């Protein structure tokens, strides 16, 4: 009974504002099977999951469950049809007990009161059924991330779903915690649950999944048993053709080391050695959440807990203690997640650009209006920002133009800085959610900065971007920066191999 | 991408073809509402638009304008100051007591009250920036503390006595024999706050902090310093308003400032619906203060029962906040 087709998607297509997110995707999921869904960022994995779990309605195609066609208009429809999702972010409330979390929103009641004994016994039955041993009667604060994840999946299992979708379940887990999670998932499989497993960790695909489907640019480009593939073959399928780059030249100085970090230990990442030369663009590659963002933020003074055995960043002979100190020494961070960390969405373009140069654009505490306006107009011209003028609210700009404003904040400051020391630019996912055209323009800006002697350290979830920009790329594997791949050897498959 | 309102790369239509009606409504709707209120009362009561009454309204709202201007800066920095009412009361009785009991010259008494307001503001700032208490709670707790100090100072009784004649000048004086001094003070405060928020480095830092504290920090702005200044200015405005109130009432009343918390908040929220929706600004608050002042005065002239003013106050507050929230993603907690 476990080999019938449980979930079947046929010809799924979805467009967002003219761009194709999914096209003609067919996917079958059998009973008791763990199917890995992999693909680069933007390949359409998350859109596919959203369609399957009812969060997004497909434009084309049909879904059927056990042969019966279904139409999901809301998440509740998919839930009722037996499809449960455990999202990357766990939905466990720390101040409730394990049992209370599992039964949250469907607590058995006696009259108007929650029947606590029944909550406990139903939750207990669930854990016994799947043979997991997690503490149910204490508050979840004390659980480690692995146990919390298991509890989160148990919560999804409480509705007795036939299909379980796991979105990057191991993203924030240690190796031991992951092992325990997989033992639990194997048990679920034995109970006939079908699992759709989304991951960036390709080794997990080979160790635990039965079948793997690859999405690329919204289309399914591969679907077959894991046993028939090797890691490098899978990587090749994911990446497809090599991307040629035409106008790349190195501006790196060979002897002028501007950044040197030695023996830095952070929560998730150890950095034995990291150097950047004047005019050099250096990448940091890792799977999602490997600590690369934290490294850049540490170097920009955002956090200042971790200490390095030795460090030199430009004119600073240690890691900065604060963002202000970093900026004073010419260390500028382009933060990831621009709407949360970089932009003032409700302020105008001019105001957004201005915040990086309050001192440069003022005299005796008063802003110099003419200078401020000129700075904004220079940025609009230089970066070709499409806007109605410096007054336009930055939230109403497109993603690419918003990101240009983020770059513009520091470019304006660099253009009006009295000090002439060459800067260190730290770029965290610098083209996140940016269209192809603006991407190319921002790459040109980065190269221009390097040509003028800036040192650049960049991290990106898109390895293609690192290949386009970098002189060399440090790779994070197993929580440490282990190898450094020179430009001549930079390929997407090489990077994927190094970080897995 | 759900929060990006307009189509990518396409600037909102506001040029060439001419007039973007919804944008104009969103920017000037509140000003329009003020005009509607004005016209309605003018039609309902002939006395409303007499020069004497208009001057009267402006004098009445001058205290509220001063306290609300300070509060606008706190709200612009992303924080609340719920201690303004009690700080105003304390400022009022402190200046009265210093003149009557300690025989201090009136300028010194005003200065002392202002310093008291700044100190309380700085304590509020420390509670928020150092102890990381949400400002709504820290300043809510500061209210009764200021009230306790107030009662300790005056025993809970009003301070009745003749103040130095110069002191009354700030309430009844007229510049060039025409313009009432309290109006001048209020306009001065509005002007200074406007320049501070829009033309000065400190003000830009305050606005950036309120717009996105994390992005401000990553831009190298000292967000704690901006918030300290904002609280200090809020306390200063409240104390100064309290002093003006004492000059107008002719007595130092221990609970005179209390209603100003509610009215100042309503004025700031109303102001957040004007000009740049969702942002606290002094020019917006000015509009809010004028609306509240006209409602108070107009209802009085029409002989509305006293309790109706309370109802209207509450309704204005609800309308202001719902409009402010509807037009943008401001968070009140």
Fold blueprint:
The complex is a heterodimer of chains A (500) and B (333).
Chain A (H helix, E strand, L loop, with lengths): L4 E12 L2 E12 L3 E5 L6 H8 L7 E6 L2 E3 L4 H6 L2 E4 L11 H5 L6 E2 L2 E2 L1 H15 L14 H13 L5 E5 L7 H16 L3 E5 L3 H7 L2 E6 L2 E7 L5 H9 L17 E9 L4 E8 L3 E5 L6 H8 L8 E6 L9 H6 L2 E4 L3 H5 L6 H6 L7 E2 L2 E2 L1 H14 L16 H17 L8 E5 L7 H16 L3 E5 L3 H7 L2 E6 L2 E7 L5 H7 L2
Parallel strand pairs in A: 3-10, 3-11, 6-9, 9-10, 15-21, 15-22, 17-20, 20-21
Antiparallel strand pairs in A: 1-2, 1-4, 4-5, 7-8, 11-12, 13-14, 13-16, 18-19, 22-23
Helix pairs in contact in A: 5-6, 8-17, 13-14, 14-15
Chain B lengths: L20 H24 L6 H26 L7 H17 L5 H24 L5 H20 L4 E2 L4 H8 L1 E2 L3 E2 H19 L1 H11 L1 H6 L4 H27 L1 E2 L6 H13 L10 H20 L4 H22 L6
Antiparallel strand pairs in B: 1-4, 2-3
Helix pairs in contact in B: 1-12, 2-7, 2-10, 2-11, 2-12, 3-4, 3-5, 3-10, 3-11, 4-5, 4-10, 6-10, 7-8, 8-10, 11-12, 11-13, 12-13
What does this structure look like?
The complex is a heterodimer of chains A (500) and B (333). Chain A has 500 residues and is of the alpha/beta class. Chain A has helices spanning 45-52, 75-80, 98-102, 116-130, 145-157, 175-190, 202-208, 231-239, 292-299, 323-328, 338-342, 349-354, 369-382, 399-415, 436-451, 463-469, 492-498; strands at 5-16, 19-30, 34-38, 60-65, 68-70, 83-86, 109-110, 113-114, 163-167, 194-198, 211-216, 219-225, 257-265, 270-277, 281-285, 308-313, 331-334, 362-363, 366-367, 424-428, 455-459, 472-477, 480-486. In chain A, the strands form six sheets. In chain A, strands 6-9-10-3-11-12 form a six-stranded mixed beta sheet, sandwiched between helices. Chain A has a six-stranded mixed beta sheet with strand order 17-20-21-15-22-23, sandwiched between helices. Chain A has a four-stranded antiparallel beta sheet with strand order 2-1-4-5, covered by helices on one side. Chain A starts with a strand and ends with a helix. The two termini of chain B are 24 Å apart. Chain B has 13 helices and four strands. Chain B is 71% helix and 2% strand. In chain B, strand 2 and strand 3 (179-180) form a beta hairpin.
């Amino acid at each position: 009974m476990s080999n019938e087709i449980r979930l079947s998607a046929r010809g799924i297509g979805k467009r967002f504002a003219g761009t194709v997110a999914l096209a003609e995707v067919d996917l079958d999921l059998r009973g008791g099977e763990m199917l890995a869904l992999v693909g680069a960022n933007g390949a359409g994995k998350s859109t596919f999951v959203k369609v399957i779990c009812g969060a997004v309605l497909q434009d084309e195609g049909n879904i059927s469950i056990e042969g019966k066609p279904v139409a999901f208009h809301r998440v509740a429809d998919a839930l009722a049809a037996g499809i449960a999702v455990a999202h990357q972010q766990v939905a466990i409330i720390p101040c409730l007990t394990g049992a209370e979390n599992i039964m949250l929103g469907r607590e058995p009641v006696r009259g108007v009161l929650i029947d606590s004994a029944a909550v406990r016994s139903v939750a207990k039955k669930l854990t016994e059924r799947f043979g997991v041993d997690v503490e149910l009667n204490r508050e979840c604060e004390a659980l480690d991330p692995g146990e919390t994840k298991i509890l989160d999946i148990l919560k999804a299992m409480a509705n007795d779903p036939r299909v379980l979708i796991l979105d990057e379940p191991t993203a924030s887990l240690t190796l031991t915690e992951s092992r325990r999670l997989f033992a639990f998932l194997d048990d679920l499989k034995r109970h006939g649950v079908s699992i759709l497993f989304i991951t960036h960790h390709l080794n997990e695909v080979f160790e635990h999944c039965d079948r793997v489907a690859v999405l690329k640019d919204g289309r399914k480009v591969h679907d077959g048993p894991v046993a028939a593939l090797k890691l490098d073959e899978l990587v090749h399928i994911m990446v497809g053709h090599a991307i040629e780059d035409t106008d790349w030249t190195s501006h790196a100085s060979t002897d002028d080391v501007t950044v040197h970090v030695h023996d830095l230990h952070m929560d998730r990442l150890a950095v034995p050695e990291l150097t950047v030369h004047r005019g050099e663009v250096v990448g940091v590659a890792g799977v999602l959440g490997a600590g690369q963002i934290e490294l850049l933020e540490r170097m920009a003074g955002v956090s200042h807990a971790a200490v390095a055995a030795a460090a030199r960043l430009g004119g600073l002979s240690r890691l900065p203690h604060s963002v202000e100190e970093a900026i004073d020494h010419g260390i500028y961070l382009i933060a990831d997640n621009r709407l949360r960390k970089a932009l003032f969405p409700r302020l105008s373009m001019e105001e957004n650009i201005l915040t990086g140069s309050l001192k440069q654009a003022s005299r005796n505490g008063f802003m110099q209006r003419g200078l401020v306006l000129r700075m904004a107009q220079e940025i609009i011209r230089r970066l070709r920002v499409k806007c109605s003028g410096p007054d336009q609210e930055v939230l109403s700009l497109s993603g690419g133009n918003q990101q240009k404003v983020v770059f513009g904040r520091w470019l304006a400051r660099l253009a009006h800085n009295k000090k002439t020391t060459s800067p260190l630019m730290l770029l965290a996912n610098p083209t996140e959610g940016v269209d192809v055209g603006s991407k190319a323009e921002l790459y040109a800006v980065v190269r221009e900065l390097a040509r003028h002697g800036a040192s650049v350290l960049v991290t990106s979830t898109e390895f293609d971007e690192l290949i386009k920009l970098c002189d060399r790329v440090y790779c994070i594997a197993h929580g440490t920066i282990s190898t450094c791949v020179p430009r001549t050897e930079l390929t997407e498959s090489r990077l994927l191999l190094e970080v897995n | 991408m759900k929060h990006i309102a307009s189509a990518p790369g396409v600037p909102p239509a506001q040029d060439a073809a001419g007039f973007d009606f919804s944008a104009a409504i969103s920017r000037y709707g509140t000003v329009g509402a003020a005009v509607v209120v004005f016209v309605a009362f003018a039609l309902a009561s002939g006395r409303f638009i007499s020069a004497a009454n208009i001057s009267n309204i402006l004098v009445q709202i001058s205290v509220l304008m001063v306290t609300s201007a300070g509060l606008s800066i706190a709200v612009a920095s992303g924080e609340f100051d719920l201690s303004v009412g009690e700080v105003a009361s304390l400022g009022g009785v402190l200046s009265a007591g210093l003149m009557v009991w300690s025989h201090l010259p009136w300028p010194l008494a005003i200065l002392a009250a202002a310093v008291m307001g700044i100190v309380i503001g700085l304590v509020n700032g420390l509670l928020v920036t150092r102890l990381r208490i949400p400002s709504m709670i820290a300043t809510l707790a500061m209210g009764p503390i200021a009230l306790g100090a107030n009662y300790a100072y005056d025993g809970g009784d009003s301070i009745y006595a003749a103040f130095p004649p110069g002191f009354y000048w700030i309430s009844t004086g007229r510049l060039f024999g025409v313009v009432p001094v309290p109006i001048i003070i209020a306009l001065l405060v509005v002007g200074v706050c406007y320049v501070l928020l829009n033309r000065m480095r400190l003000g830009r830092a305050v606005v950036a902090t309120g717009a996105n504290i994390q992005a401000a920090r990553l831009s190298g702005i000292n967000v704690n310093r901006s918030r300290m200044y904002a609280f200090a200015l809020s306390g200063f405005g409240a104390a100064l308003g309290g002093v003006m109130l004492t000059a107008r009432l002719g007595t130092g009343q221990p609970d005179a400032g209390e209603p100003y918390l509610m009215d100042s908040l309503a004025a700031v929220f109303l102001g957040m619906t004007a000009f740049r929706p969702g942002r606290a600004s002094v020019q917006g608050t000015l509009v809010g203060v004028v609306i509240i002042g006209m409602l108070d005065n107009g209802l009085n002239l029409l002989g509305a029962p006293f309790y109706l003013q309370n109802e209207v106050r509450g309704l204005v507050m609800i309308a202001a906040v719902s409009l402010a929230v509807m037009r943008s993603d401001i968070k009140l907690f």
